[in-house]
Amino acid sequence: MRWREMSLRCQLFNGLLNKEFLGSNFTIWKEWKPSKDYPIYYLNNRKLDREEYYKIDQFLQLIKFRYIPNRVLPIDLIKNEHRELRDVLIDRISKRAKEDQEAFQAIQDVSLQIISELSQRFKNACPGVGSIRLATPLSWRDMAFAFGYRISSGNVEIEDIYQGSGIQSLLMLETLLLIDQHPRFKRFGWRQATIWAIEEPESSLHSSLEAYVAQYLSTISSHDGNRLQVIATTHSDLMVQYSDDLIVSEISNGQSSFKKVDDKKQGLDILSKAGISRWVHPILHFPLDPLILVDGKYDQAFWEEAFRFIKPKKEVRVTYLEEISSPDRTGGSDLLNYIKENVQVIKSRRSDAPVILVLDWDASNKKTEIERRFSAGDPFKVLLTSA
């Protein structure tokens, strides 16, 4: 998930904004005081005159801000957005529906197209649940339909309201992304970016779905075409692992403080010691991604550069012993001993996210020694390389 500083870079369209006034790299904030019934605007540490406020408001209108509180009922939020999807469906079939039967079949066909990506990701995240479709009208009498989903299991379709809160939360995020980012929703006009502020997105999610949602938020916010920023409060180590930036909040003597932590491992240690999140073995970090364990930081740089060229479909993490253990443990025999000490931990990783140990080509005897500690179905592989 993307936490960028509130210094926003933007492309200025059709003279809509005064580039001389804002510049290309700028900071905006508002300040509220009990004595004033309107906020005070600042631009690059300069307090603005009231006459300049409209220029800032003009820029802020380009950004959609969506706040998702922790206690919201996902299905209620989805249903509040149903008019957006209904309007798109009706608009797209109005010219092609000649008869009633054709019209409602067209609605169903269009709805399948609109949520095709949502449906595929939902199937990947919840493989045991079944397929999903929009609950569209079957007759003109149903045109004032209440938007919802139908989730199938065998020959039975179940309304979304009867699903667990975890599945409802995933559907909520998918639906909001569809409405905020999908090109078919033209009504947002010149809006250029979207910000989601989410309270504890891990709420009500089981461990696997929590990992998926953490990865999902990271993926959608890092996609260049989405222009989406996600800011989340969390107690989840998984959300922290998949985030781009970590801000730790503390309260001391009644005062709140915020500290940016650049080292993700250090941040996880701080949070676990404070009792905010659980401690997780470094081998189990990024549970959805294959983990390549190399000899040192130079090997890590080589492999990461190679993956930038290869561009694998799935994210691959590359690390080395000093990064996941302690600075006094390096490669070679220390690395092999680390594997031996953590056999059971490695075995607990997902089968589609194995640990891959990279050794030099002349270490075939060590390869055999390590591999005999694992069975064929374990999420562990040894790769010999001459690189």
Question: Can you characterise this structure?
Answer:
The structure is a single chain. This protein is of the alpha/beta class and 387 residues long. The chain folds into 4 domains: 133 residues, no CATH class; 98 residues, no CATH class; 33 residues, no CATH class; 103 residues, Dna Topoisomerase Vi A Subunit, Chain: A, domain 2 (3-Layer(aba) Sandwich), CATH 3.40.1360. Helix content is 37%, strand content 20%. The chain contains 15 helices and 16 strands. The chain has a 4-stranded antiparallel sheet with strand order 1-2-3-4, with no helix packed on it. Helix 3 packs parallel to helix 7 and helix 4 crosses helix 5. The protein is globular and about 70 Å long. The N terminus is likely disordered.
Shape: globular
User: Pairing-aware structural class of the strands and helices?
Assistant: alpha/beta
Number of helical segments?
15
Give the tally of structural domains.
4
Distance linking N and C termini? 34 Å
Tell me the total number of β-strands. 16
Strand content: 15-25%
**Helix proportion of residues, in percent?**
25-40%
Order of strands in the sheet with the most strands? 1-2-3-4
Q: Average pLDDT value?
A: 80
List low-confidence stretches.
Answer: 1-16
Biggest pleated-sheet summary: 4 strands, antiparallel
Radius of gyration: 25 Å
